[in-house]
Write a structure and sequence with these properties.
Layout (H helix, E strand, L loop, with lengths): L1 E8 L3 H19 L3 E5 L4 H7 L5 H9 L2 E6 L16 H9 L4 E7 L12 H4 L3 E7 L9 E6 L5 E5 L5 H16 L4 E6 L5 H14 L6 E6 H10 L6 E4 L1 H14 L7 E5 L4 E5 L16 H13 L4 H16 L2 E2 L9 E2 L2 H12 L1
The structure holds 3-isopropylmalic acid and magnesium ion (MG).
Length: 356
């Protein structure tokens, strides 16, 4: 019996998590795994109910479970909450509390969707990269001071971006290992021409790479990387980078696939893994039943792969998603003339049927 925590969260979160849950049930039936699900509150939903974004009960449940699947958190309703009560604190808190220091964002241009990319189809078709983002350090978790008025009556605020060698090494090591079963290339992204923490990053990356002679290590400044992702996305294999740079580059990489609604992510490290689609809570379309559930469904596949070691079940889900897309079914976000438009629920049902 595997225990899975579901955190529907806010906006479209509940709709896409419901779709992913059905797929998990189907996969379980096929592979003879049994799941016990429990739903927990986080984000705006938790703020409304308990007055705080990440109840202790949610953290405890996730820490005890085998894995957690999260929809999305946040929305305009809670945007004016004080910094310590922001809905985003839920995700940051879960990552930190569970020691999930590695975030994996596989960015694959689905052959059937290459035409949706804002870039030229021939430049993106076949692109397949993995962003390995450091997730519990750097400027996200450094000391900070909210806006204050200094002695000269000027308003200020600051955030410290600090890294230690062990924090860098464990994530670079993970990226190197991941590259071994891919194209054996790691691009370490930093801003070492300016930042001290980046100079340490680059040094530790080089040192760690010595243990992986088969893998080619390349260093790239983050500004150049932002440009190269647009110019030659196919030149990348594994990108490893800091928390902040990874946040920014993964949105950029995601959008070149033409379908941010489809991309999954996994956060792993010490505690049980946390799986969530890359996209946000999309409050503008919440409740309409038109959100793309494939990001959540593919996150469920990652959950099976990374937390439950059920590779066959994971691959079956991914194969089913590819098939449904190849058959021409599209949710509104990826719809175009000549395709069949479907709702969130219909898309989930199609994947479920393909799995059977
Ligand atoms: C992400 C998100 C989060 C982040 C937010 C919601 C705190 O943008 O997972 O990329 O900045 O890490
Ligand atoms: Mg982000």
């Amino acid at each position: 019996m595997k225990k899975i925590i579901l955190i529907p969260g806010d906006g479209i979160g509940p709709e896409i998590v419901a779709a992913a849950r059905r797929i998990l049930d189907k996969a379980a039936a096929k592979q003879k795994i049994s799941f016990e699900f429990a739903e927990k509150y986080a984000g705006g939903a938790a703020l409304d109910k308990f007055g705080l974004p990440l109840p202790a009960d949610t953290i405890a449940a996730c820490a005890e479970a085998d894995a957690t699947l999260l929809g999305a958190v946040g929305g305009p309703k809670w945007d004016n909450a004080p910094p310590e009560l922001r809905a985003e604190k839920a995700i940051l808190g879960l990552r930190k509390e569970m020691g999930l220091y590695i975030n994996l964002r596989p960015i694959r241009v689905q052959p059937a969707l290459a035409g949706n990319s804002p870039l030229k189809e021939e430049n993106v078709a076949g692109a397949d990269l993995l962003i390995v983002r450091e997730l519990t350090g750097g400027i996200y978790f450094g000391k900070r001071r909210e806006a204050f008025v200094d002695e000269e009556t000027i308003e200020r605020a600051w955030d410290i971006g600090e890294y230690s060698a062990p924090e860098i090494e464990r994530v670079v090591r993970y990226a190197m290992r991941a590259a071994l079963s891919r194209k054996k290339k790691v691009t370490s992204v930093d801003k070492s021409n300016v930042l001290a923490s980046s100079r340490l990053w680059k040094k530790i990356a080089a040192r760690t790479a010595l243990d992986f002679p088969e893998v080619r290590l390349e260093n790239m400044y983050v500004d150049n990387c932002a440009m190269q992702l647009i110019l030659t996305p196919k030149a990348f294999d594994v990108i490893v980078t800091s928390n902040l740079f990874g946040d920014i580059l993964s949105d950029e990489a995601a959008v070149i696939t033409g379908s941010i609604g489809m991309l999954p992510s996994a956060s792993v490290g010490q505690g049980p893994g946390l799986f969530e689609p890359i996209h946000g809570s999309a409050p503008d379309i919440a409740g309409l039943g038109i959100a793309n559930p494939l990001g959540a469904i593919l996150s469920a596949a990652m959950l099976l792969r990374f937390s439950l070691r059920e590779e066959a079940a994971a691959a079956a889900i991914e194969g089913a998603v590819d098939k449904v897309l190849a058959m021409g079914y599209r949710t509104a976000d990826i719809y175009g003339a000549g395709f069949t438009k479907v709702t969130t629920e219909e898309m989930g049902a199609l994947v479920e049927k393909e799995l059977a």
